[in-house]
Amino acid sequence: MGRFAAENEKTPLLKSGQTFKVNVQIVNPSAESVFAGGRVKVNALKDWNVSQDQDVHEIAPGNVATFSFDVTVPPEGHPELYPNRIYPLTADLFDVDGKRVSVTHTVVAVDIQKKGHEVLLTDNWVSANMPWAEWTCATYRHVSVPDAANGQEIVDALWTKLGDGTEVYALQSGDRSGRRRAATWKKMAEGVVEFDLKKPRHLTRIFFWESRTNDRTEAPIAVKLSYSADGETFSEPEECAIEWGAEVKDLSRQAEIRFPAKSARYVRLAFTANPVNKRKVMSLDEVWIMGLGE
Ligand SMILES: [Ca+2]
């Protein structure tokens, strides 16, 4: 699971702001030599408080000396604390000359609640790697019906089928090089999709990623947002300009819209194509709907 760790009985699960004891044992494995002593130090990440290094006295052959340290987890809300992560602790042993002669390490986890924190709700391909994501089984569908007789078409590739049969399409999937993982509307002035978050959620923001193309005019220029609790009655559409960021990352740019405080299960997005695109193509790689964790 990469940098994520499931709860594990061998990994202490701590709370933010909590002070806990770390015992470091120093063993002299020699049958003859006395360890002449030195210092022992415990290290943790920045903003984790660790009690001072300690003097180590002589340790006779085969003997064990134990040292107790206090370590304090950063307070709740610290930006470096994430759910489902592990944090390292190391202990260094220095001899009387200050030379590091031994090191050991362990990891601890911190119980961080997602409740009330902004999380990604749309089960995008990045959700597995984002600490602030919550799996919702969100899906989306195309509301627009292309008029084939006039050359209109929607291209949206099925990327994968999950174990429960949920089909994942382009706006929720991709990879670093995946141009195919974009939805494309051809000869359509507007493209409407409707996300279903499976239950009403408190929404905070929405992020868009443009298609990985060199043609910047394929990106939509505006979106009309409307919301629903039941999928039948929608709020009046609110039009928002999509202001694409200046930075191009992996051939694409990102835009963000902040929702007014809003609770909804269904989010309808009506994208406006850029009229200057010569091929009458609009494409979009990814939609991330953010809301408060539960
Ligand atoms: Ca995509």
Fraction of residues in helix:
under 10%
Tally of separate domains: 2
Distance from N terminus to C terminus (CA atoms, Å) equals 23 Å
Bound ligands: calcium ion
Radius of gyration: 27 Å
Q: In sequence order, what are the helices and strands, one letter per element?
A: EEEEEEEEEEEEEEEEEEE
* Strands, count: 19
Using the 3D structure, state the CATH architecture of the largest domain: Sandwich
User: Uncertain runs with pLDDT below 50, 5 residues or more?
Assistant: 1-5
Structural class computed from helices and strand pairing: mainly beta
- The fold-level CATH name of the largest domain is Jelly Rolls
Mean pLDDT: 91
The shape, in one word, is elongated
Provide a descriptive summary of the structure in words:
With 294 residues, this protein is mainly β. It is built from no helices and 19 strands. It folds into 2 domains: 13-110, Immunoglobulin-like (Sandwich); 118-292, Sandwich (Jelly Rolls), CATH 2.60.120.260. The strands form 4 sheets. Strands 9, 10, 11, 14, 15, 16, 17, 18 and 19 form a 9-stranded antiparallel beta sheet that branches. Strands 1-8-7-3-5 form a 5-stranded mixed beta sheet, with no helix packed on it. Strands 2-6-4 form a 3-stranded antiparallel beta sheet, with no helix packed on it. It has strands at residues 13-14, 19-27, 38-43, 49-50, 54-56, 64-72, 86-95, 100-110, 118-120, 139-142, 153-155, 158-161, 167-169, 183-186, 190-210, 222-228, 238-241, 254-272, 281-292. Strand 12 (158-161) and strand 13 (167-169) form a beta hairpin. It is elongated and about 90 Å long. Bound molecules: calcium ion. Calcium ion is lined by residues 170-171, 173-174, 181-182, 285-286.
